[in-house]
Amino acid sequence: MTAPDPAPDFVRATRRSYDAIAGGYARWTRDELAAKPLERGLLAAFAEHVVTDGGGLPLADVGCGTGRVTGHLHRLGLGVEVFGIDLAPGMVAQARRDHPGLRFEEGSMLALDLPDGSLGGLLAWYSTIHVPDAELPRAFAEFHRVLAPGAPVQLGFQVGDEPLRLTEALGEEVSLVFHRRQPERVAELLRAAGLEVRAVVRRERDTEGPFPERAPQGFVLARRPRMADGCGGAESG
């Protein structure tokens, strides 16, 4: 007899939904990043922080989906390993097909199968959007745990105060909740997890082009503080 799945209901629903749409999602989003210069710029800035502050350790794309952003970061030639983690086996399989030279693993951001301080950077690009408010501190605590001192974390998400619920996507039945949040609130929760916020960006929604949006977009860059941060000493500026 199969053992019951111990994962929370929202994890099981999100996994099933993305398994159902993996192929269609890969086709639909394949050229999305090419149409978004601001996002490419934010990712480039994040990647530079990984190179300068990550100590040569790997960069994890947590909630990587079909691996399109993982692949983009790899193509930047950072000189560190870039790999992806996703909840849905169907998405991981699609990522492996689309990016055969990269490593992709199944996993949850609520309990990352990674040693403490093992990452030189962590990207959560529109993946915390499916985590309920009550579980978000747990995810951010995991981010803090797996990042090396000084290593950056970059988040992308939709901005708003009310969640969006979908029961159909790309012709498939799904059960997905998109938690929209204010950037300042996300920054506050990151600080509560012990992370140092470096930048908060809000972009108004794009209603034109091939990827029209329903909501504004938010981005927060933070880092795990360095060992010596907060220990006093001279300040510049």
From TrEMBL:
Protein name: Class I SAM-dependent methyltransferase
Top-level taxonomic group: Bacteria
GO molecular function, one term: methyltransferase activity
Signal sequence extent: none
A Pfam family matched in the record: Methyltransf_25
Gene3D superfamilies: Vaccinia Virus protein VP39
Key words of the record: Methyltransferase, Transferase
Span of domain Methyltransferase: 61-150
A Gene Ontology biological process term: methylation
This protein's record includes keyword Transferase: yes
PANTHER family found in the cross-reference section: METHYLTRANSFERASE, RHODANESE DOMAIN-CONTAINING PROTEIN
